[in-house]
Amino acid sequence: MAAQNNKEVDALVEKITGLHAAIAKLPSLSPSPAVDALFTELVTACVPPSPVDVTKLGPEAQEMREGLIRLCSEAEGKLEAHYSDMLAAFDNPLDHLGMFPYYSNYINLSKLEYELLARYVPGGIAPARVAFIGSGPLPFSSFVLAARHLPDTMFDNYDLCGTANDRASKLFRADTDVGARMSFHTADVADLAGELAKYDVVFLAALVGMAAEDKAKVIAHLGAHMADGAALVVRSAHGARGFLYPIVDPQDITLGGFEVLAVCHPDDDVVNSVIIAQKSKDVHVSGLHSGRAVGGQSARGTVPVVSPPCRFGEMVAEVTQKREEFANAEVVF
């Protein structure tokens, strides 16, 4: 079995390396048939379950992976900017969000994040104010959360790029509900301090701090300034999906001043993994608390790697229905 897994991993790394080389040769990463075809092939190769642990690949493969993630980030930014401009041409851009080819993925990811928060944050969530770090020119995550799950919540969206924020704000110009609850700020998360204490939940986008050490610094900064009891949602990746997005070690989240409550690795079209954590006055940035995470441990014990709540709910509903049908059925001898 180990030999079979090694062959599978070697074949996958060889394929991804070839795709990286082809993508790196493209004259532009702006949307085009050639760009779309290569990235579609890349995602198709990375999404299925795989035995690969990208964190254990050799130096050459690691260098390739880091370069590929940077290319994915650049291409994603150009794709979002392209569609943001296209949507902004409509009188009410929010009526046409389905034009974006991956909009349903945002719907599913935001639903997953909301359900994980509701399930694992003690007492549930009813946030008055949420921050989204790394919102980009198409802030679909904030929109879906605001429109479908958190109808009374104010959203502050932060991005390093002022142009991205200008594009994003235009999408909400005709909306008097969600638009009134959205604000956009051009800032580096490292420059935010007192502002962070006012948020009940902070979302950290997958591509904020792409290198592991940079991500750990961002998380530690959030841990130093977020309010006790506030929730943190970190987007990560798992398995071969780590060729597309950075992988966040839950240990870094605990050392950053949080208690990790749950880790979820979807196996469907939701590409990102989701880590739910909570800032606690008993967990300090120094990592010296007695409940410090070691080898997957937290202040509450082993961090649960959980299935998506939506699937669990569907399973429970199905079992309940079967039981009711059985209970109501006529017994014939």
From TrEMBL:
Keyword list, A-Z: S-adenosyl-L-methionine, Transferase
Domain of life: Eukaryota
InterPro entries: Nicotian_synth (IPR004298), SAM-dependent_MTases_sf (IPR029063)
UniProt EC number: 2.5.1.43
Reaction(s) the record says it catalyses: 3 S-adenosyl-L-methionine = nicotianamine + 3 S-methyl-5'-thioadenosine + 3 H(+)
A GO biological process held by the record: nicotianamine biosynthetic process
GO terms assigned for molecular function: nicotianamine synthase activity
SUPFAM superfamilies recorded: S-adenosyl-L-methionine-dependent methyltransferases (SSF53335)
Family as reported in the entry's similarity comment: Belongs to the nicotianamine synthase (NAS)-like family.
Function, as annotated: Synthesizes nicotianamine, a polyamine which serves as a sensor for the physiological iron status within the plant, and/or might be involved in the transport of iron.
Protein name in the entry: Nicotianamine synthase
Organism the protein comes from: Triticum aestivum (Wheat)
Upper taxonomic lineage: Eukaryota, Viridiplantae, Streptophyta, Embryophyta, Tracheophyta
